[in-house]
Amino acid sequence: MSQVDPRRLIPRTDAVLALPAFAEAVARHGSAAVKAAVTRAQQQARTGEIGPDEVVAAALAHLPARTTSLRPVLNATGVVVHTNLGRAPLSRAAVEAVAAAAGYVDVEFDLVTGARARRGRATLAALREAVPAAGDALVVNNGAAALVLATTALAAGREVVVSRGELVEIGDGFRLPDLIASTGARLREVGTTNRTSLADYRDAVGPDTGCILKVHPSNFRIQGFTSAVDVRELATLGAPVVMDIGSGLLRPDPLLPDEPDAASALEAGAAIVTASGDKLLGGPQAGLVLGDAEVVERLRRHPLARALRVDKLTLAALEATLRGPVPPVVADLHADPAVLRARTERLAAALGRGVVEVAGAVGGGAAPGMPLPGVAVELPPGCAEALRLGEPPVIARVERGRCLVDLRCIPAEADDVLEVALRAVLRVDPGDGGDGGDGVAQVAEG
Ligand SMILES: *Cc1c(COP(=O)(O)O)cnc(C)c1O
């Protein structure tokens, strides 16, 4: 009996690629990536690292688990709108809407007449239904884009009257005065940092006024000897009032009494309101413009509007957010404290750890200084890095040297996954916690 050279048993590339599992892999990863994985596995078989019968499995194993490098994480920070973690997680309805819109869709086409139709009309209708005081609506890329478009269309070459108390930096170096200057409008500052009166505005408003801009100083608070002029009074001065509410709250929320909302601002007389879609509205990144139909139309017709246009995926996600179930951001903000506590205590007991009271935060430059009372599992200091580097990555909150795991923004159905991730870092075996909890938890080093 002659020995067969095992290398002659290595399956050929075309034979491997013909297997059903590889057709599926090509659809997901592309043929170049799949061929490279097969070649690598064949090479391993040639060197004897694996057997010829292991080539198929090895090739599949070489394919990346993900086709995007963005890693889903568990947000255990208790900060609901977390900019670094992508702000608002979409509702399942919104995710499904995005998937459905990913192909060819009638975004700008009327199936009945076969003619071109207004882009995103269903999303705009949903916005107008959500805010009946708005005569019309427009969606652009983000809140900053909405503000740029509004000041450009209404005030380029003219003046934007704004209080010195509202010349804010929103984050990541985005400063309102610079943004307005970039539109070709001139900034007409009125009042002082802490106090601005109606007379200050009145003295500034004149034939050269393009608009009065009112900005919600969303990420800080000025306290003490302060005064500001509300939209109702500004609307009496004869110039269109643009109110940048920031957060995307469409109607008042009793939980957030200091947060301005679109409906109230329009009812008070604002010509238009600009806002983000992915803060308190809980939808995709988007900039909303709501308000007087003629003013919105001026913005829509401005050439800049085309450069700030949103894609069909955003329109789909936004419509589903407006019409569908309560999005995660809103649900998490309003989470039942008793349910949160029960989940937290169960997890803490399972891990043999303690529960501490914490203040969560709305985040995303909304409701500054308004803590969200909650609870968290306290882990030994130094766990945060290991949690971050685990699978899935868990982003804990580090506060005064403590490592806190806040369940507010963890979907209840992910509690088991979270527990496994925490056990891995604490090196608590299943069954160790709960009844014992006698300090068995060990922090994994480094
Ligand atoms: C967040 C915010 C913006 C910017 O909105 P983006 O959607 O992040 O571009 C503008 N104005 C205010 C008051 C904000 O809070």
If you had to describe this structure to a student in words, what would you say it looks like?
It is an enzyme of class 2 (transferase). Converts seryl-tRNA(Sec) to selenocysteinyl-tRNA(Sec) required for selenoprotein biosynthesis. With 446 residues, this protein is of the alpha/beta class. The chain folds into three domains: 6-62, no CATH class; 74-81 and 330-426, Alpha-Beta Complex (Aspartate Aminotransferase, domain 1); 90-325, Aspartate Aminotransferase, domain 2. 36% of the residues lie in helices and 18% in strands. The protein is built from 18 helices and 16 strands. The strands form four sheets. The chain has a seven-stranded mixed β-sheet, sandwiched between helices. A five-stranded mixed β-sheet has the order 2-12-13-16-15. The protein has a two-stranded parallel sheet with strand order 1-14. A hairpin with a 2-residue loop joins strand 5 (169-171) and strand 6. Helix 3 crosses helix 4. The longest helix is centred in the first third of the chain and has 16 residues, at 31-46. The N and C termini lie far apart (56 Å). Bound molecules: pyridoxal-5'-phosphate. Pyridoxal-5'-phosphate binds next to helix 7 and strand 9.
Present the secondary structure layout.
Elements: H1 13-17, H2 20-29, H3 31-46, H4 55-62, E1 74-75, E2 79-81, H5 92-101, H6 121-130, E3 136-140, H7 143-155, E4 159-163, E5 169-171, E6 174-175, H8 176-182, E7 186-190, H9 198-204, E8 209-215, H10 231-234, E9 241-246, H11 262-267, E10 272-276, E11 287-291, H12 293-301, H13 303-307, H14 312-323, H15 328-333, H16 337-351, E12 354-363, E13 366-379, H17 383-388, E14 394-395, E15 397-399, E16 402-406, H18 415-426
Parallel strand pairs: 1-14, 2-12, 4-7, 4-8, 8-9, 9-10
Antiparallel strand pairs: 3-11, 5-6, 10-11, 12-13, 13-16, 15-16
Helix pairs in contact: 2-3, 3-4, 5-14, 6-14, 16-18
